[in-house]
């Protein structure tokens, strides 16, 4: 190895240890749009305690895209968020499992009923319905879920979620970096 090449590598290693490497993370998350009776339990779960038995709606965490940088300058090493072609939500309320259909659960995406949305009974949980929306997470700006089941003990207000984009800059560390809060 030539002396100049070694010096350049040594210089880059020294600069990266002084300033560190950072990565940019970006993605989408859901926020409750109308307060109603729904409370956000986590960034993927919402609970309505207005009735005698609570109702919960959960989803899977969406993936984030990343771009690595050195001295806050992106290096071009990007990995886009590769979310599945459909988005799933799970609705749990007492007396709901016998009514997992589009009359008991009304779902609107971006203000419209999405054709091809499938509603079925959850395989493992009792009183749970699974909703599969045939859209990628990135294509959804808002979501409205209404529980109209006659077997539930009372009426729940609709859950209305807005999609928010987040961008985070975090220090890259060996062994795992701190997560981004949103």
Describe the 3D structure.
There is one protein chain. The chain is mainly beta. The protein has one domain (22-170). Helix content is 9%, strand content 43%. The protein has one helix and twelve strands; from the N terminus they run H-E-E-E-E-E-E-E-E-E-E-E-E. The chain has one helix spanning 3-19; strands at 21-32, 38-42, 45-48, 55-59, 65-70, 73-79, 87-92, 105-109, 118-121, 128-133, 142-147, 159-171. The chain has a six-stranded antiparallel β-sheet with strand order 6-5-1-12-11-8. Strands 2-3-4-7-10-9 form a six-stranded antiparallel β-sheet, with no helix packed on it. The chain is elongated. The chain starts with a helix and ends in an 11-residue tail after the last strand. The mean pLDDT is 77.
Q: Which structural traits does this protein have?
A:
43% strand; mainly beta; 1 helix; six-stranded antiparallel β-sheet; 182 residues
Structural class, from secondary structure content?
A: mainly beta
The total of beta strands comes to: 12
Low-confidence stretches: none
Q: What is the helix/strand order? A: HEEEEEEEEEEEE
User: N-to-C terminal Cα separation, in Å?
Assistant: 47 Å
The value of Rg in angstroms is: 22 Å
Fraction in beta strands: 35-45%
Main sheet overview: 6 strands, antiparallel
* Tally of distinct domains: 1
Widest β-sheet, arrangement of strands? 6-5-1-12-11-8
* Mean of residue pLDDT values: 77
Shape: elongated
Helix content: under 10%
- Our count of helices gives 1
């Amino acid at each position: 190895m030539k002396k100049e090449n070694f010096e350049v590598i040594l210089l880059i290693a020294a600069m990266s240890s002084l300033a560190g490497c950072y990565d940019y993370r970006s993605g989408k998350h859901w926020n409750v749009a109308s307060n109603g009776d729904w409370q956000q339990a986590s960034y993927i779960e919402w609970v309505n305690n207005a009735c005698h038995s609570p109702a919960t709606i959960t989803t899977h965490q969406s993936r984030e895209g990343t771009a690595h940088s050195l001295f806050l300058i992106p290096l071009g090493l990007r990995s886009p968020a590769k979310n599945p072609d459909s988005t799933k939500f799970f609705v749990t309320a007492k007396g709901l499992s016998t009514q997992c259909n589009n009359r008991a659960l009304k779902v609107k995406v971006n203000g419209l009923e999405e054709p091809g949305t499938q509603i079925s009974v959850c395989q493992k949980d009792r009183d749970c319905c699974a909703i599969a929306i045939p859209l990628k997470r990135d294509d959804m700006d808002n979501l409205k879920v209404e529980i109209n089941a006659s077997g539930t003990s009372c009426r729940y207000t609709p859950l209305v979620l807005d999609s928010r984009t987040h961008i985070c800059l975090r220090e890259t560390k060996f062994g795992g970096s701190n997560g981004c809060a949103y």
